[in-house]
Design goal:
Layout (H helix, E strand, L loop, with lengths): L2 E8 L7 H14 L4 E6 L5 H14 L5 E8 L1 E6 L5 H6 L2 E3 L15 E2 H14 L3 E6 L13 E3 L6 E3 L1 H9 L16 E5 L8 E3 L8 E2 H12 L7 H15 L6 E4 L17 E2 L1 E3 L2 E4 L12 E6 L2 E7 L2 E3 L2 E5 L10 E7 L4 E4 L5 H5 L4 E3 L8 E5 L5 E5 L2 E6 L4 H18 L13 E9 L2 E5 L2 E6 L3 E8 L5 E8 L5 E3 L8 E3 L4 E4 L11 E2 L12 E10 L23 H7 L5 E2 L7 E11 L7
Helix pairs in contact: 1-6, 2-4, 6-7
């Protein structure tokens, strides 16, 4: 059985990272047993050569081979042409962008559609059931703009195409509608950089001419961390997601298909989140702990073949794994460790050595570790003053005597970053049935937007509508996590949210007196440098009972005011935080609306 890969990098438009991403992936896969790695970049990443390369890959594949297809580059989707058959337009909008893609294209559309990729994948899985697809590109039609040194892997807008006519030219009259959905192939695993309505980014380090895909870099790092550890694609994706969202909270990698399988195998992973145990003197090492997001303070039940033998508390997290002291305990062959308690997530911050101790004492921030990239950075000037910045630009400055305020601002930024990662599928939702719509308001008219990936400008007015389909009363609170990490309870009339009955709607942006839809304007915080667009997140907290969220409120990263929030309430919002992992979960649904705010009124940044 051979491990084979076809790696495609289409470096078009403003992108500078796909070629390097392909080289990085090739080296990583070779470290993990791939002996047949085929690279298509530059002119070899044209439409015809990509398809021909995929065809050759299928021909060369034998039963039992592990085969991976990887693409890095732009992604977009088509707007259906008038009269196009509905099922084609609905199921098959996405396409990848080869290096010979040009617009306008007439009848010669050079993109490779989801239909074509799905047909190729279906043919590949006839040869082997061990097929993996990895896509580092966008799947959104919305306009996006550069965020600091980040560039979206997406065309500047959607493409108008008679997709049915294009597919008939490709396949003849037998358009394979039954094979248009890549998620329908139950023999394959598919990892994507973001959702179908989200944006994936590449990051260019300051001063470097070449960028790298956030998703690709996280994939390679997580893959290397998995060496020697039996792990599923689902667990690997969780680690990839954490790494990506440390850099870009609005990008959410996903895994689809046979995610329960072990990496590059067809057998499912039955370890249920357990880790192997290695004795190193008086210490016990858990290799692969980074895949589960293990942190100092986490506790594990160490279980031998006969049952639990000891409790291990983690006090070190290093590239090779997490470890803790456990002297004098026998660890027979087959001993595993299962996490029973997890501390709250902590965000890495790069700080001068003089601040290490103070940042280590924070609840949501910690000093950056070896081989980590930190989303927050503190530098010290010659006069002893400090500058706190994130990847988008500076956040605050203070003199040598402002350390206390600086550490407080670091904690605020980290706390808001943790809260930004909350999603409705966190495992503790109440199951209340709600429908959500949001978007821009222009003279009372609605312009709906997707839940993630939109671009707004200062002065734009927004609305949010939540419709209750639960069969009972619900309460809704709206929290805004601003561009400077402030957390505002927008529905501040009641700390436990606004109540609305079954069948009713809660509309944010509705004038309660006139019942007109006026919207609420978005603004740029005073004192924050308008050097770049920044991400903003609105969280809708929907509960079946009143639930006071006011303790989450905090000021932005400026000034010396103290946060009113407490770690305890935020802990309840996060999967695997400071609680007994076997305990009850609060009944709370969270819907996240994510957009990018430009500091320039009504124009691109």
């Amino acid at each position: 059985m051979t491990r084979r890969a076809l790696l495609v990098g289409a470096q078009t438009g403003r992108l500078t990272g796909p070629n390097g991403d392909v080289r990085t992936m090739a080296a990583a896969l070779k470290r993990h047993g791939f002996t047949d790695v085929r690279v298509h970049i530059d002119e070899d990443a044209s439409r015809d050569r990509i398809i021909a390369g995929y065809e050759r890959l299928i021909e060369d594949t034998a039963a039992g081979d592990a085969v991976l297809f990887y693409y890095a580059g732009h992604g977009s989707y088509v707007i259906p042409a008038v009269g196009e058959r509905a099922e084609v337009a609905t199921n098959s909008r996405q396409f990848i962008v080869p290096t010979d893609y040009v617009e306008p294209f007439g009848d010669d559309f050079r993109g490779i559609t989801a239909v074509e990729l799905s047909v190729l994948l279906e043919r590949l899985t006839r040869r082997t059931e061990n097929a993996i697809v990895v896509l580092d590109c966008c799947h959104s039609a919305l306009m996006s703009r550069t965020l600091g040194t980040q560039v979206p892997r997406q065309l500047d807008g959607p493409t108008v195409l008679d997709l049915e006519a294009h597919l008939r030219r490709r396949f003849g009259d037998d358009v394979p509608i039954d094979r248009t959905d890549p998620l329908g192939n139950q023999k394959a695993v598919r990892l994507v950089a973001c959702g179908t309505r989200e944006v994936a980014y590449e990051q260019r380090p300051w001063g470097s001419p070449e960028a790298y895909g956030l998703f690709t870099a996280a994939f390679v790092r997580a893959l290397d961390e998995s060496a020697g550890v039996p792990v599923s694609w689902s667990s690997l994706t969780e680690r990839i997601r954490r790494l990506v969202q440390e850099q870009e909270p609005h990008q959410r990698p996903e895994v689809e298909g046979r995610s329960e399988r072990r990496l590059f195998e067809t057998e499912p992973d039955r370890s249920a989140g357990s880790l192997p145990v290695v004795r190193v003197g008086d210490r016990v090492l858990l290799p692969g702990a980074a895949l589960l997001g293990v942190q100092r303070g986490d506790r594990f039940a160490v279980k031998g073949p006969g049952g639990t033998t000891a409790v291990l508390e983690i006090d070190r997290c290093e590239p090779e794994g997490a470890s803790g002291l456990l002297p004098g305990v026998d660890l027979p062959a087959g001993t595993q460790a299962v996490r029973t308690y997890a501390v709250a997530p902590r965000i890495a911050v790069q700080v001068p050595a003089a601040l290490d101790e103070a940042v280590e004492a924070c609840t949501f921030a910690r000093p950056v570790g070896a081989f980590e990239e930190a989303p927050l950075l503190v530098t010290q000037s010659d006069d002893g003053g400090f500058l706190l910045r994130d990847r988008f630009g500076p956040l605050m400055r203070c003199g040598p005597d402002g350390r206390r305020d600086l550490v407080e601002c670091i904690e605020r930024a980290a706390r808001a970053t943790v809260l930004r990662k909350v999603r409705e599928e966190s495992g503790w939702a109440s199951g209340a049935q709600v429908e959500v719509e949001w978007g821009l308001v222009d003279e009372g008219a609605r312009d709906p937007l997707p839940l993630s990936g939109a671009q707004l400008s200062v002065g734009d007015s927004i609305f949010i509508e939540v419709r209750n389909r639960s069969g009972g009363d619900l309460w809704v609170s709206v929290l805004d996590i601003g561009v400077s990490y402030g957390i505002t309870h927008v529905t501040n009339r009641a700390g436990s949210g606004d109540r609305f009955a079954d069948g009713d709607s809660y509309v944010f942006g509705l004038d309660r007196r006139t019942r007109e839809l006026t919207g609420r304007k978005v603004s740029w915080p005073a004192g924050l440098d308008p050097v770049s667009s920044r991400p903003e997140t609105v969280l809708l907290l929907v509960t079946t009972d009143p639930y006071d969220v006011t303790s989450l409120v905090q000021p932005p990263v400026r000034g010396a005011a103290r946060s009113r929030g407490r770690a305890g309430l935020l802990s309840h919002f996060l999967r695997g935080t400071s609680r007994d992992l076997t305990g009850a979960d609060p009944e709370l649904d969270v819907i996240s609306l994510e957009f990018t705010l430009s500091p320039l009124p009504g124009s691109a940044s």
